[in-house]
Known about the structure:
Largest sheet: none
Shape: globular
Number of domains: 2
CATH topology of the largest domain: MetI-like fold
Amino acid sequence: MHSSATATSAIIPKRVKNRTRPKVFSHIALSIICFIVAFPMVFTIIKSTQNLGQIMAYPPNLMPGDQLIANFSEAWNSSNLVRLMGNTILVAVAVTLAKTITSMLAGMAFVYFRFPLQGPLFIFVLLTLMMPTDILIVALFRMMGQLQWTNTMQALIVPFMASATGTLLFRQHFSNIPSELADAAQIDGAGPLHYLWSILIPLSWNIIGALAMIQFIGVWNQYLWPLLIINDNARQLVQVALKGITVNALDAGNWGVAMAAAVIASIPPLIVFLFLQESFLRGFALTRDK
């Protein structure tokens, strides 16, 4: 009895050690990855508080400087950054709302309705996922010119009001909701929109949050399309404005202002991420499990 108990006690620590080692390695790997991802942003924040001499120092000076207020004030007031960030927030919110609504309706249509060419249409939607937006730039530019929408907010919003990614997410999510709910709603006399509002939307908040975060950050980071379609600086978006601020600051030898402008421009998407990160993780975990 004593020998068997000793053998068992000797085996258990080995198993615990074998289970602990992968966790230690995974934690080390994740810590390294987090450091690599976070370091550029931390470096930018530090440099936004320094003067040119501190920024150009070698070895690099990683201590905060004393130019925080001066650099951020100049960045805030330069190139009408506040107004351009307002333009970008307006466009990002409009596109996010439009994409969420159209994606939800399209996903519902593919799951709950039967219509001609339903299968080929869904395959076509999937194929558009493989098509980069950049290859459509010329066609979109000509279309905006024919509609006389060049240099307007409509040109920044309307071409991006639908999302193949959102349609796929909602289609997969709705297809896993028990069909008995739709049957019961139909028996109770609920129409499609009432069923969507009272049943599907309450069950889809995590998917909605995940899609909203992706779309908002995607629109916020747009550069090429606003650069081509908007000529009026007062209607421009923040990423294009950042390019001008950076060029002017570097020409003047004031790199801290360029860093400060980049930090200011990153605040709205960071707030959106912090607010919706839980929905983002739950939404994609839910999609993966199903």
